[in-house]
Design goal:
heterodimer, A: about 475 residues, alpha/beta, Rossmann fold, 3 domains, 19 helices, 15 strands, about 45% helix, about 15% strand, B: about 500 residues, five-stranded parallel β-sheet, about 50% helix, about 10% strand, globular, binds iron/sulfur cluster
Chain lengths: ~475, ~500
């Protein structure tokens, strides 16, 4: 891939100075800890120099969440036909109820469960343990929601501290209820971010779900699974039709709008297509090792990356699929051109800074570039080295890379680089909007979406244009 | 075939008849009974955990940076919840305890966290509160904060009030209470001067997600000419303007004012249940008179507040407020026909529930199902007494420690005309096809409702308009052509 052309005013030196100036305002220990997480991009380097997946530095105001958030919010929550029990006190479950936008089909409370199930721990549960309560709760849940296809037990902080054994309870109840009951030890204090929650959840899927089911119909040569699309704002519903249009057969989705038994039967597919590498690569590797299923990372943000991805997917199949790929690309070219013709003139030359979870900063760069927007800074809440290595080549030389950026740092960086747009989360949003800087929430698509696929790009383009070119920004400075 | 292979099950499809059956069953009387029998499972609770309430209080003092001792994830949840509700920044920092903290305690995290928070964000005060984790392992915050100062991580004179806010106890309103008492204890220490009276009123709004309410209190006090200090005043923090400059500390109760509050002329709390321990402590420590007032929803409770204020400060109620009252009553008599006899289901915090029920009874509406997902028998009694004051309270039921899935059962088996609650009630509302009126916390799916006051005479008019106009909209949108008409 050709290296990005340099961005005006941004050099390795200017970025390193900005980092040094920012660090200088921190206590020595924090400086030392934070310095390795900030860097100027070297697109050609074999490994990104920025360090990641380390503990949050206390007190700096990190934007990270916890393992429970990664488990409940990201991996489990979207599986629509299971009951997901937030096991512990009331808070975690309430805050994560309906706040990720992983949309799902089904009849709520009947065949799908976009709700908050919790054991609402009280003092006595802490003192005497919550295992018996959990048992009872699972029985009650199964009775009141009989069409559930299984239950997950997601432990919150206290559970792991008081010595409860949710694994034993799950095992017992799985037998008794003759339904999947999956324990997930994702207490929020484990690990350093949401990321460990993804990993632990992948492991529970490995140990309790995958391989336990099979599809009724014979396996076919075009059977694939969609991994790491969580159907935020309907993303799956925009991505799946494209894959079907090129002739593939999407047998299961992990886990957006997901169905647990289909997830459990995924080991019969021919290929795993993975969108969010960070949160689901573990299971792709397991399926590769155990069932020889190859996997491919793809990117459905913006026409350039969609085309690239479709062709790469086609390469793994026969001529029929390859032909279909070209047909689909040809079909959507004019549609996409219409979109860029409309928005690019208003967006060309703008810059944006991104800070999201573990995938989107690098995955969305292409979509911004399709609109003529350059990325001057990017970073992740909970990415690992392999994510940064995949990011460096997508960014211009000298651009700013920041890992687990604190509010203090991000404010300084934005102040200096003056982007036309910041794409990040709800906690960051209003900080920058108060400063008059257009912003889009890039976890939740800011209550819009889908952003995946061809349909998604139309909406993405409209949203970015609307954020940057809203006349409301002209009102920020008062004339008196 | 091996045993393992044999154990592999086919992917199943639930038969449509079965889905139909369950769909109907969950709306049945039989299901309701089963639903009310559960004792372990909670589904869709209408309350949050203690530290969230603590963060609201901690945000309400000028230059204060809320500090969460415990897990990082909780901090992100609290901040996100506030930012979604107010559409405002919600700065708070956390010392991000992890597994080793669970083993060795969180003192080192606290040290480092305080040092960094102080250096980076230069707060005037760091109120500290806890998540479940340090509560379970029993961290000693008193000793830890003393040590942090002794060892120079933060200056000796930086106020660091702390509150234990275990989530496995009570709800967000209790965290509010604990943190407020702690902050006031810290800031007023040594400030009491015998015989000194600032002449001011201390007013505590309680856990109120409506910044419009806070502003309305202030407007009323200004009109009455009563000097005041609002304690834990989040109105400018959670409702700050957009002028091109982000301010980390855009307002809140001034430290000096909070310190002087102990020498005030009077202290009133607008919410009984979210300030229980604070008011008990104030009762014994503060100078001046104290009063716990009911949340002024509707005319009578607003009257009560104004008369109390007039009495405490020996001031007449100004003509302007009297005119406001008359306008509210005018609006209510004009529109009473749209609400009279209408049944409502309400979910919320105890003080809010008491307020809403008061207003509904005044309108001749019936607060048919009243549900509080975390409360006490005492509250139930007080609510019952309120219902007993009016014929419109007859036949109404109170449910404590029940959740929104219980509420759903009530709605489908014994329907009402409207539901009043926070955004979380929208699922039950949709299932039961009953309109939801968003009053409470959090409201994360509509704009600006947190800016529209629902207290005072003006608040009564807004609530009334919200309710009556929605009913009229529904009529216009759903009636057959021959019943569609110009006037309503
Ligand atoms: S872990 Fe405890 S304090 Fe944290 S959000 Fe959950 S209930 Fe609240
Ligand atoms: S796309 Fe980002 S936010 Fe979504 S699961 Fe992956 S890492 Fe998390």
């Amino acid at each position: 891939m050709a290296e990005r052309k340099p961005i005006k005013g941004i050099t390795i030196e200017s970025t390193e100075k900005l980092i040094a100036d920012t660090l200088a305002e921190m206590p020595e220990k924090a400086q030392k800890k934070r310095a390795p997480h900030l860097g100027a991009n070297e697109p050609g380097a074999s490994a990104c120099a920025v360090k990641s997946n380390k503990k949050v530095v206390p007190g700096v105001m990190s934007q990270r969440g916890c393992a429970y958030a990664g488990a409940k919010g990201v991996v489990w929550g979207p599986i629509r036909d299971m009951i997901h029990v937030s096991h512990g006190p009331v808070g975690c479950g309430v805050y994560s109820w309906g706040t990720r936008r992983n949309l799902m089909q089904g009849i709520p409370g009947v065949t799908s469960f976009p709700m908050d199930f919790t054991s609402d721990f009280q003092e006595r549960d802490i003192v005497y343990g919550g295992d018996l309560k959990l048992e009872k709760l699972l029985r009650e849940a199964d009775e009141l929601f009989p069409l559930n296809k299984g239950m997950s037990v997601l432990s919150e902080c206290p559970v792991g501290l008081i010595g409860d054994d949710i694994n034993a309870v799950a095992k017992k109840m799985e037998k008794e209820l003759d339904k999947l009951v999956v324990p997930c030890n994702c207490e929020g204090f484990r690990g350093v971010s949401q990321s460990l929650g993804h990993h632990i959840s992948n492991d529970s899927i490995r140990d309790h779900i995958i391989g336990k089911f099979k599809f009724k119909e014979e396996a076919g040569p075009y059977d694939i699974a969609l991994i790491g699309d969580y159907n935020i704002g309907g993303d799956v519903w925009a991505a799946k039709p494209i894959l079907e249009e090129i002739g593939l057969n999407v047998k299961s989705v992990w886990t957006g709008d997901g169905e647990v038994e289909k997830i459990g039967a995924t080991h019969s597919v021919k290929l795993n297509l993975i969108h969010c590498y960070r949160s689901m690569n573990y299971m792709c590797k397991v399926m590769e090792e155990k069932w020889n299923i190859p996997w491919l990372e793809y990117n459905f943000f913006g026409p350039t990356k969609i085309e690239e991805s479709l062709r790469a997917i086609g390469e793994l199949f026969d001529d029929k699929i390859r032909k279909n790929v070209e047909k689909v690309i040809k079909k959507y070219k004019p549609v996409m051109k219409e979109v860029t013709d409309e928005y690019k003139p208003r967006l060309e030359g703008k810059t944006a800074m991104l800070f999201v979870g573990g995938l989107r900063p690098r995955h969305t760069i292409g979509a911004y570039e399709d609109l003529g927007i350059q990325i001057t800074g990017a970073g992740y809440e909970f990415a690992h080295q392999d994510d940064y290595d995949r990011t460096a080549p997508e960014m211009a030389k000298g651009t700013l890379i920041y890992d687990d950026v604190s509010e203090f740092e991000l404010e300084k960086f934005v102040e200096e680089l003056k982007p036309d747009l910041v794409g990040s989360g709800i906690k960051e949003k209003y900080v920058f909007q108060k400063a008059g800087i257009p912003f889009r929430q890039m976890h939740s698509w800011d209550y819009s979406g889908p952003y995946h696929g061809y349909e998604g790009f139309k909406i993405f383009a409209r949203d970015i244009d609307m954020a940057i070119n809203s006349p409301t920004w002209d009102l920020v400075k008062s004339p008196f | 075939m091996s045993a393992a292979e044999a154990a592999v099950k086919f992917v199943t499809e639930t038969p449509p008849e079965e889905i139909e059956r369950v769909k109907e069953w969950i709306n049945s009387e039989e299901y309701k009974e089963k639903n009310f029998e559960r004792t372990a499972l909670v589904v869709n609770p209408a309350h949050a955990c203690q530290p969230l309430g603590a963060q609201m209080v901690a945000t309400g003092f000028e230059g204060a940076l809320p500090f969460i001792h415990g897990s990082q994830g909780c901090a992100s949840y609290f901040r996100s919840t506030f930012s979604r509700h107010y559409r405002e920044p919600a700065a708070a920092t956390c010392d991000a305890m992890t597994e080793d903290g669970a083993v060795f305690g969180g003192q080192n995290n606290l040290f480092e966290g305080l040092e960094n928070a102080y250096a980076l964000y230069k707060p005037k005060m760091i109120p500290i509160f806890t998540t479940c984790m340090p509560e379970v392992i029993g961290d000693d915050l008193n000793a830890y904060t003393k040590n942090a100062k002794a060892q120079g991580f933060i200056p000796e004179d930086l106020p660091t009030p702390y509150a234990n806010t275990p989530s496995f106890n009570g709800s967000h309103i209790h965290g509010y209470d604990a943190m407020l008492r702690s902050i006031l204890q810290t800031l007023t220490e040594g400030q009491k001067v015998e015989g000194k009276c600032t002449g001011k009123l201390n007013i505590i709004p309680g856990f109120d997600g409506n910044v419009g309410n806070l502003r309305e209190y202030k407007r009323i006090l200004d009109l009455m000419g009563i000097p005041y200090t609002m304690l834990a005043d989040v109105s400018d923090v959670f409702d700050s303007g957009c002028d091109g400059e982000y301010k980390l500390y855009p307002g809140g109760t001034k430290m000096e004012d909070a310190a002087e509050s102990i020498n005030g002329k009077a202290t009133i709390s607008m919410q009984k249940y979210s300030t229980v321990t604070t008011m008990k402590w104030i009762e014994s420590e503060y100078d001046g008179e104290k009063a716990i007032l009911p949340l002024p929803f509707g005319v009578k409770k607003t009257d009560e507040m104004l008369m109390k204020l007039a009495e405490l400060f020996d001031k007449p109620i100004p003509a302007e407020l009297k005119a406001e009252r008359a306008r509210a009553v005018d609006a209510m008599t004009d529109a009473q026909q749209y609400l009279h006899g209408r049944k409502f289901a309400i979910a919320g915090d105890p003080d809010y529930l008491l307020g809403i029920v008061t207003f509904l009874l005044e309108m001749g509406a019936r607060p048919w199902h009243i549900l509080c997902s975390r409360s006490t028998k005492k509250f139930q009694k007080e609510m019952q007494a309120l219902l007993d004051t009016s014929v419109f309270g007859e036949g109404c039921s109170i449910y404590i420690n029940k959740d929104l899935w219980h509420m759903r059962s009530l709605l489908v088996t014994d329907p009402v005309d409207g539901i009043i609650g926070d955004t979380h009630a929208k699922w039950a509302a949709r299932d039961a096809k009953i309109p939801l009126f968003r009053i409470g916390f959090p409201i994360i799916d509509r704009v600006n409702l947190h800016r529209t006051p629902v207290v005072g005479y003006n608040g009564a008019i807004s609530m009334l308009s919200m309710l009556a106009n929605k009913f009229l909209d529904i009529k216009d949108e759903t009636c057959d052509d021959q019943w569609f008409e110009m006037m309503r």
